[in-house]
What we know:
By secondary structure, the protein is α+β, with helices and mostly antiparallel strands. The chain has a single domain, classed as Roll (Nuclear Transport Factor 2, Chain: A), CATH 3.10.450.50. It has four helices and six strands. The chain has a six-stranded mixed beta sheet with strand order 2-1-6-5-4-3. A hairpin with a 2-residue loop joins strand 5 and strand 6. Helix 1 runs antiparallel to helix 2. It is globular.
Amino acid sequence: xxxxLKVVEKVYASFSTQNDDAARELxxxxxxxxxxxxxxxxxxxxGRDEVIEKVMHALHGEWNSFSATMDEVIxxxxxxxxxxxxxxxxxxxxxxxxxxFAHVFDIEDGKVTRFRQYADTFxxxxxxELFD
Length: 132
């Protein structure tokens, strides 16, 4: 297992437990966090504090029992690709969702410098009742 994959596994764990300190240790100060524009709260986030506040905390505020499961991993040391599944229950509607994703992490000196997300956002929008 590469150093990059170890970092990525720790990132998922820190987001799952909402451990701000662990996340700060794993994200570069100037990390670029690029989420799908259709993803709730999506867009381009810069800096670890913004990522922690606008991604990690926001997801757990919007969704009950939110999780991102790593289903398959492509480990290329400084680049780690994760294919997985989001699960959660929307906090306002009470509707569950399950959506597939691909995450691409760039790792330098043991820290995430860039994250790119590709996700099926339709199940999330349906659980949020954004469609008639």
